[in-house]
Design brief:
CATH superfamily: Ribonuclease Z/Hydroxyacylglutathione hydrolase-like
Number of helices: 8
Helix content: 10-25%
Order of helices and strands: HEEEHEEHEHEHHEEEEEHHEEE
Largest sheet: 8 strands, mixed
Radius of gyration: 19 Å
Shape: globular
Distance between the termini: 44 Å
Structural class: alpha+beta
CATH architecture: 4-Layer Sandwich
Bound molecules: zinc ion
CATH topology: Metallo-beta-lactamase, Chain A
Number of strands: 15
Length: 327
């Protein structure tokens, strides 16, 4: 089945898998349709240019708020554009079926635009980054966004990884093959680290990060106040992270859901990004149900920046309400 095809397992493959982090393809200059020419009137309107799937540079951005005694900061890295071609979202459906859902939300119908982001948690003792974005290859802006938050790469003490797709681990290394966060321990589930090491396309990155990686089992409190939650399916060892200070908490759901519209309105749709489609779909629905029931604050790195808000139940599925605490 299509979602089992390794060629579409990850953003990495869609963006740049072939040659590793230092040889990503050029970022599309623009995904906007060209302005119509006024020089000559064609007999038939020209077909709009096909949307190219891939990463697109974004301006650095950060959004900071308090969570109990912690400071939490949503960070922007890039945008990922997926053409509405049923390869990434709505596998096995038609573009028209996906377009109908996009139209309901007032979004362009020929593409699905996803944010690429990461979360920073300053606990007072540790400076913790949850995922590392795309990195230098497609000109991810995460390090610049961190600077806006007053944090230098050398300040980061821990990088907690949800999973080893390139838009989450690519930023662990710089373009010239050095550790981006030289003083940080890199943490991920033991199962994900095994999958990461087995991915030949990530061999260069694995070689750079290996001395810094420490695996753990889901359920572990990885740093004080941040607990890893098993969300296997998207990848073999995919995790979410529960960040808690006092009575306040936020759940980083990783790639449990990609589109704030489609993944919530149609959680049963097969995602090309999911390694084990049936398991990922089951885990997506049950965890979204729990998040809606608990009215828990959520960080969803692929939802529109700042990617902070709440999941609620709607029409037998779910809806997203963007909301930053205190605003
Ligand atoms: Zn992702």
């Amino acid at each position: 089945m299509l979602f089992r095809n390794p060629a579409i397992l990850s953003f990495l493959t869609l963006a740049a898998l072939a040659c590793g982090p230092s040889a990503l393809p050029p970022v599309p200059a623009s995904v906007e349709p060209a302005a119509p020419s006024t020089a000559a009137k064609p007999e038939a309107p020209p077909a709009p240019p096909a949307v190219k799937s891939g990463p697109v540079s974004a301006s650095p951005q950060m959004k900071s708020f308090k969570l109990g005694a912690f400071t939490v900061v949503a960070l922007r890295d890039a945008t990922f554009v997926a053409a509405n071609d049923n390869k990434a979202i709505g596998v096995g459906l038609t573009p028209e079926a996906v377009a109908a859902e996009l139209k309901k939300a007032g979004l362009p119908e020929d593409r699905i635009e996803l944010n690429v982001g990461a979360l920073l948690v300053k606990t007072g003792k540790q400076v913790v980054l949850l995922d590392s974005g795309l990195g230098d290859g497609p000109k991810g802006a995460l390090v610049e966004s961190l600077k806006l938050a007053g944090v230098a790469p050398a300040d980061v003490t821990d990088v907690l990884i949800t999973h080893s797709h390139f838009d989450h681990v690519g930023g662990l290394a710089t373009g010239d093959g050095k550790l981006t966060y030289p003083n940080a321990t890199i943490r991920m589930s033991n199962k994900e680290w095994t999958a990461f090491k087995a991915n030949a396309d990530l061999a260069k990155l694995v070689a750079v990060v290996t001395p810094k990686v420490k695996g753990f089992e889901p359920g572990a409190e990885v740093v004080p106040g941040i607990t890893a939650i098993e969300l296997y399916g998207h990848t073999p060892g995919h995790l979410g992270y529960e960040v808690k200070s006092g009575k306040e908490r936020i759940f980083d759901l990783g790639d449990l859901a990609h589109s704030s519209v489609l993944s919530l309105a149609k959680p049963e749709w097969t995602m090309g990004f999911d390694g084990d489609g049936p398991l990922a779909t089951k885990v997506r629905r049950s965890r979204l149900e729990a998040l809606a029931k608990d009215k828990e604050l959520v960080f969803a790195p692929h939802f529109p920046f700042p990617s902070i808000g709440y999941v609620s139940a709607k029409d037998g599925a779910f809806a997203w309400k963007a909301q930053v605490p205190g605003e």
